[in-house]
Amino acid sequence: MEPQRLLLQFLRLLLLLLPTIICSSAAYPRTMRYGMVERYSTITITDSGLPPEFVTYYYEQTLDHFNYKYESYLTFQHKYILNSKYWGGANTSSPIFVYTGDEVGIDGDAISAGFMIDLASRFKGLLLYIEHRYYGESMPFGYTEIAGQNSSTLGYFSSSQALADYAQLIIDLKRNLSAESCPIIAIGGSYGGMLASWFRLKYPHIVIGALASSAPILYFDDITPQNGYHVIVTKDFRETSENCYNTIRQSWFEIDKVATQANGLMNLSNIFNSCMPLYSSEELKNYLGIVYVFSAQYNSVSQICDAIDTAPEGTDILGKVARGLNASFFGGQSCNAVIDIKPNNRSGWYWQTCTEMVMPIGHGANDTMFQASPFDIENYTRTCLDIFGVSPRPHWITTEFGGHDIKSTLGNFASNIIFSNGLRDPWSAGGVLQNISDSIVALYTKEGSHCLDLSSPSPSDPDWLVSQRDKEINIIGGWIEDYNNAKLGSKMNKKIGF
Fold first, then answer.
1. Tens of pLDDT along 37-56?
2. Are 243 and 251 in contact (CB under 8 A)?
């Protein structure tokens, strides 16, 4: 049973960490984190967890940047990682590329965001990866996990506090390295990409530009249709195979029908070869939903559809779906670890979605290949009250960072942001897909998946991905050149008395 136990542990971690949205529950859309599962295997890891050029440090970070109460001045150990392998040094004004840490510990981002290493080697850059407060080791109040905390300690857990963390740490680090003249470029993916773009908007005196990959900054309020995420998942499957799409669409009814029969749950357990007996049809449907959105988000739909389409003649609908599950990233084991992850008080991301990161994602009965699951803010709020004792603020993000009428508002005062997306990524529904100005640009590919451009470049990369990265490199190079020219001009003006 050891392989099954290990798979179950992996799936539990995966479901907490990957940034997929699962709307199987009308009460609470489930969010998980930006994954780089396939990319981990391409890097040699030392016993310490990171290649030797990645060096870990800790910064004494301010707990509360926005108040002046006694506890605001408390501090915590804030983890960050430096890689100076390619850095030209402070005297050369070489750039500093900052990864805006997201909803996991920073080590995984340092390993996985290989495009940053490529940028550093091209521009002689210093790499700085900053962990997001309340994730990984950067936990205030001496805690090691979210479980057991409440609003008295988690009340300092927000995107605005995280951005202020990044600003304070960067300023002090540049001073300590005598690198005040080195330009800062923020880079992030998914939630980290949102933070990178917001960092540029809120702290333009610190960061000269931002690359925001797969950043759904428009998935708030009513800016993006609630069903946008699942519409793209459906489109990915339907474009791959009409038969596959129809099979999945019909399967939900079949699962419910079998579940109501005598020994129905036992029969479903056997059909889908679950490691543990199923206790409800919802458990199975939620799990299959996870499999489908993961496959769409990371461009592995064809594995499922190929298995469904090549089922032997006479295979019924559930038999075909079971074949698809077995062929997916989650399959291939002696049994399937069907688990139902519910909102809980052990995840930092659940805290964030219960406070400010309220993305109203849902879908109706006939607009996707999934069963109806409309977004319900009242049930959502009750869930958050149950697990954390807090009510969400669904409009705060657009109040703090904007989003409505983004073209005119950002076009009037912002600059130097790249919003990159792949249109096969369901999160692109909430992304910026049109240029806002000459310097706030949208780079997207029809074939791309979630945060793919941030992965390590490979000789096998398709031309469209190479082209997307080349455009990003050229734009970032232009930012650095403009910064250095402006600095040189300032020195010249000082010399001649202006």
1. 333 333 333 435 789 999 99
2. no
16, amino acid identity = L
Name the active-site residue from 214, 450, 453, 455: 450
User: For 189, what's the count of Cα atoms within 13 Å in the CB-facing half-sphere?
Assistant: 28
Runs of H (alpha helix) within 183-241: 191-202, 228-240
Tokens of 129: 């990866």
**Does the pLDDT of residue 31 top 80, yes or no?**
no
- Any catalytic annotation for residue 425? yes
- Across the chain, mean pLDDT equals 90
Alpha helices in 90-190 (DSSP H): 106-112, 114-123, 151-154, 159-176
CA-based end-to-end distance of the chain: 76
Angle at 400 between CA 130 and CA 412, to 5 degrees: 100
Closest CA to 315 of 264, 251, 374: 251
* Catalytic-residue membership of 138: no
Identified catalytic residue from 24, 138, 158, 190: 190
Pairing of strands 417-422, 440-445: parallel
Helix 228-240 crosses helix 242-259 at what angle (to 10 degrees)?
120
Report the DSSP beta bridge partners of residue 420. 213, 443
DSSP 457-482: P-TT--HHHHHHHHHHHHHHHHHHHH
- Could you say which of 102, 109, 165, 425 is catalytic? 425
DSSP 293-338: HHHHHTT-HHHHHHHHHTPPTT--HHHHHHHHHHHSTT--SSSB--
Are 114 and 457 spatial neighbours (Cβ–Cβ below 8 Å)?
Answer: yes
Residue 420 annotated in active site: no
Cα–Cα distance measured from residue 343 to residue 129, given in angstroms and rounded to the nearest whole number: 29
- HSE-CB for 354 with a 13 A CA cutoff: 27
